Structures are given as structure tokens and as C-alpha cells.
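Anyone else keep sequences and C-alpha cells together like this?

Example one:
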Amino acid sequence: MAKKSSPKDLNAVREKLRQQAAELQQRLSLVVEQGRLAGTEGINDVADQAVSSYEKEILFTRGTHEHGQLRRIQQALARVEDGTYGNCQRCEQVIGAKRLEALPWTPYCISCQEELERNSETEQRRAAS
């Protein structure tokens, strides 16, 4: 079975993940507010409407990305609590310390992540054919 992190290590990870989640929630609130302010109502010029629509699309994309990141962090916090943090969710092997340091929310070891990405690329090529 995989080696478990010490409680001291898990406390540090938990705190880091909570800080990242709080920062993301703050940024998401800002993005939502900016999206509300970037409305096209009352804009008569077509070019200004296009710029406003483009800005809203950027904000939507950013919000979607950050919401996904927040979800991954929350899932990592759940793994800390249930004792599975640091083990790959696919092969159950220990995830490398450097990988966890760089991406503390990652659910997969580098080998499984690479395999998932290869499979995703293959599926995308098939769908495009």
C-alpha cells in the first residue's frame, strides 16, 4: 500500500489548499461582478458592442476555468479528510512529492495523467475525423 503523509504534512497541505480555495472564490466573485458590469445594454455603437461581448466572453472563460480549479481543490481537500490524499486516484500509487508540491490538487500520478491526456487526444482526433 502507498505510504501516507504525516499529520503535520497534511495540515500544511490542508492550509495551502484552503488558502488557494479562498483566493479563487474571491477572484470568481470579482469575475462575476465584472461580467455584470460589462453589459451591452445602452451601447449603440456596433464596435463597442463587439468589444463588450468579447470582454464578457473572456470573463466567462476565466470564470469557467477558475470554477473548475476550485472544484479540483475542494476534491483534494476531501481526499485529505478521507485519507486518500497523495495516492493516485487511478492506480493508487503514491504521487511524487514534487508533483504534489507543484500541483497539490492533482488526483493522478504523472504516468496516469500522461495516459489520460493521450487517450483524450486520441478521442479528440477521432471525433474530428
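And example two:
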Amino acid sequence: MQNTPSLFDPIQVGPWNLSNRVVMAPLTRNRAPGQIPTSLMATYYGQRAHPVTGAGLIVSEGTPVCAEGYGYSDTPGIHEPGQIEAWKPVTAVVRAQGGHIVCQLWHVGRISHVELQPGGQAPVAPSAVRANAKCYLIKNENGQRVGGFVDCSEPRALTLAEIAGVVQSFAQGARNAITAGFDGIEIHGANGYLLDQFLREESNRRADAYGGSIANRCRLMVEVVRACCEAISADRVGLRLSPVMEGNGAVCDPQAQAIHEHLVRELAPLGLAYLHLIEGQTGGARDHKPFDYAALRAAYRDAGGRAAWMVNNGYDRALADQALAEGADLVAFGKGFIANPDLTRRLRDGGPFNEADRSTFYGGGEAARGYTDYHALS
């Protein structure tokens, strides 16, 4: 009779021997002026990489794979040589502590603004359907950098040739991430961004091979995952999904269960490192829409999928223990890691937990306040 694994037990995920099952979820912080990682980012990730007090696995903030992939100012990319070089000190400090970090590859699609797009062009999307959503811009006003949320711009539909280019951008992003010293990648297929936009009928009104049927709407996601697996090896690839999340203009699809069960069956033979499931509404109710996550995992396992199963959204120690008892392998924690670089230790000890300064969640340039100035327990 096997014992239920603890949140603090080691686990093998792909080629990585993780020291615990706590994952630092991706957290957009808008702290990379000029889209270039900074030395302060190395400090930030390094503080959270200790194998005993920190995360067994860190997923980086969303990192655009091409110039069209940005929807928020000061997010670090992974498509230019200078960005790749600037990530190397970040990954080096994580490795020096014995930690592991993967790069979350990102394309926001229609969740963008013309000021963030090359040449001021319209953002790209599955279809020319504007998102009822905001993106984050940082502008210079009177010599000071001022940040704020603005309405997303009207997008234009991707051509078939451009869709092929998106696939290649993700594959090249995967190769660039390995060059930059990451242990692997996580493909952002969630939260109403480009790949997720293709899954949902509200945002995908195409009549070609990438729209209409469930198989067609899943096609781009599957092509991107396969291309990344071919680029760097499948056991270094993870995928994030949010089946019923509503936000960033996304509307819960009436076929969400069928769509995601089809998708995971397609992915099962690939040998991925992990699947990262956001349960319910990101940062909100876990049950805001009906969805059977156990059935989704069963569909994946029945199709031969053996990737680690990572759960996310509103987890505390008790809920994490329950999830592990019910078959999850990893538990991701997001905002808790902002104010608690040693969150794993605090979870083990039952606290105390620092409160985060929400006014510093986004932006701040290279200032330490609200970023690297939270103290660990002595």
C-alpha cells in the first residue's frame, strides 16, 4: 500500500530531479525595461530557487516568442540575441542553488495594443474579434515612467502563412530557452492568450483548417507542442491550460470539456514533462463553471499520457495535500511567492506569511521595492 506523497517529497519530472512538489507559477511583473531581463530579475528568481525553502520548479514569467507576441510593457522576450544573453545570469543563479527553471513561452494574440506592435500594426488573432479586455502600457510622462491598463486594440485575423510562422516562433523560442540555460519550457496555452483563443468559438470564427470543429480549433495548439518537442525533446516541454477561465476577453466555451479531452488525447503520445491545469477562474472561484478535471486526467492517462499533472488556483497546504492524495503530482503557487521567497518553508511550518504590496505587482523598472525586498525567515 503506497503512502500519499507529501508536498515536500522529491519527484522526477522528465529529466529533472525536483527537490519538492511545490511549483512557482508564472507571474507577470513588468520589470524588464526594453524587453530585456535584468540583474534584479536574477536576484528575484534566485531568492525563490532554494531546494529546501523555495520551489522545486520555477516557471518563468510569460516570455514572448516574437515581436508580435507582446501585450504588456516591460515583459522580457526570448526571440532576440540580447534577450537570450540577458537570461543567462538568471538561469545560472537558479542552477547554482540546485533549482530548476523553465521558460514560459508566450504569444498574447489579441490581448495587445497597437503601441506594443511592430510598426503600430493591429494585433493578430484567430479572427478579427476585439477582446473586451485590458493590456498594460508603460509610457514616459514628464520624464517619468507611468504604467496603466488600457483597452486592447482591434485585432486582425492571422493568415495561414502567418500561423505557420507562429508555430516556428514557438519552436525557435524553445531552442533559444535552452541556449539561455533554462531546463525546459512551458507553452502558454491558457488565460485567453493566442493558443487559447483558437480553442474558443467566441474568439475563433475561422472557416478553414484552424476553425469550426473541435479538431480544427485544437490544431494550432497541437502543432505548436509537437514543434517544440521536436526542437528540444518532449521531456523538457510542459503545457499550461485553463479550460473554463474567463478573463482577458475569453468566454467559457460550451464544449470546453470535449475540447480539452480531445486535446489531451492528441498530446498523450508525445511524452511531455507535465501538464499545468488552472482549475476554475484564475485568481478567483475554483468552481465558477462546471468542469470535470478528474475526467480530463483520466482521458489523458487512458490515452497513454504519463506527464506529471500540475494543479493550480487558490491552493493552500490543506488543499494541496488533498490534490496530491487524489492523484496530482505537482502544485503551483502564484501570488504567495511574490511576498514569500521561502514559501515552501512557510507552507511546511504553517506560516507566518508575508502580505504582498499589491501596488508593486506590475512595473517598477529596476526598483527593488515590492520585488526583491521581501524577507525570508531567518
